[in-house]
Amino acid sequence: MKKLFAALALPLIALAIAFTAPVSAQSSRDGVWIQIAARPSLREAENEARSYAARLPDVSGYALGGGWYGVVLGPYAREDAERVLQVYRAEGQIPRDSFIAFQRNLRSQFYPVAADATQPAEPAPAPAPAEPAVQEPEPQPQTALQTTLPDETPAQARRSESALSREQRMELQVALKAAGFYNSGIDGAFGRGTRASMSDWQAARGFEPTGVLTTAQRQVLLDEYNAPLISVGMARAEDAKAGIALQIPAGEVAFDRYESPFAHYSSKGGLGAQLLLISQPGDKRTLFGLYDILQTLEIVPLDGPRERSASSFTIEGRNNQIVSFTQASLNNGEIKGFTLVWPAGDEERRARVLAAMQASFTRLDGVLDPAAGGEAVQDIDLVSGLEVRKPKLSRTGFFVDDRGSVLTTSDVVAGCTRITLDHGYQAEVAASNTANGIAILKPAEALAPAAVAGLSTASPRLQSEVAVSGFSYEGVLGAPSLTWGKIADVKSLDGNTNVARLELAAQPGDAGGPVMDATGAVLGMLLPQQTGGQQLPEGVSFAVNADVIRGALDAAGVTPAAQPASAGSLPNAAITRLASGMTVLVSCWE
Predict the structure, then answer these.
(1) Model pTM?
(2) Over the stretch 458-478, which tens digit does the pLDDT of each residue have?
């Protein structure tokens, strides 16, 4: 398979040399291609291929099926293809709507004529789902499209053009703009700018540059523009159970199953695209809950714009693997919408597919049964069959002032791209001291804690009873739990008086939690079980004491709450309420 040996900054001549390595049969099967043109006649496609081959390396032509013929570059390794696509687009060497195609999309080779034209094996058809959910149009005969409709004189072309609606004229302007020939407003008025762009397009395609497109030329222009949609098999799908009809990339996704509130359409092509239809009964509260839940899923990356109104929302999420877009709206007690998941690096085609889906989205009668998919295997890490996003690490923290500042262990904030409190609130590191194991977090926006830790001013007493509040299982239980124990020593094993030793069976998730005495005062913060590469014996824990905590808070400019007025020992229920109010889950995200 060809591999790039030149950096992107190299001139095209260097790139051309790098791309002309021989292609083996095996690499041709394994590689990907860049489709730069699709023509509805063999003659036009051959002319197009020769034109590109005069200035670019690695040009080939393949039948695409349905009477279409494609001009492609390649094959390349996937990462190399993305670089080639970026360079050639930036330099204007290929159309901006060029995209990565796969071997399965290509049939017999027609260019170069001396090349091996062995037709690759067709992929086996995907098995039909046990319960068909999509009603697709009847397949049309695979006959070649008429590329050369009867020639029209300029006068005849003007007459046929005059019959176009304003929307059809605007569509031609959009296609000319996408092809790089038009840069004015889309208004449906064919003035001097539009005529000049038509003439330029005709000249570039080998037609007489009259400035007036014939009926056949208009069809070729629109077919060029719609090539990205053709490549993914855009077709109308009607899901009667979900009560939704729309255009979907049927060449890349196929119905899989129902798990309310989603109809799952899984990937069936090489792109790895995924589609969810959203359909459920509900009200404003249900809509807002769906908005929150979707943002916890792996298929909805954290980066990207979000908008929510009283009756609808949109969510876009991006990372270096995928781009997902979700829209949903509430109407007459029914919430309907969709989520499209697309691979990163294929933005122009994704935008075209998404626009077609949005324009065609239609609400039909009925809504998906809330019990649909109830027989599916349940998993705490899944929501309706979708994986929940999980943090790299979660530990415990506790509020130390009335603005929501949090004290936690320094190991939980190391190497994080994002830190959250209770999964929903962003926080930043105000101070971190690995020597004493303390980190101080400040929320991005002020919070109003239900309770704030009151740091003890008294020395802890040996063998006195203490309780640690913590998320023992890193938030799985949804609320903190108390672990009871005793103070075994007021210093560490090496004599450090800043640390107390506890007889307490803590879990890893408890680290960073408050150590409380019987009055509810906080004596210290629990340290991680593993320190300095050594694992503590079972039932042994250490806690940094209140004096060290107070000094760290003072240095960070945080005023800690005063020790609660002593009224004697509190009942366990009161300790539990106090601990629950001050304890917070701290999560580190990659």
Answers:
(1) 0.58
(2) 888 888 999 999 998 876 666
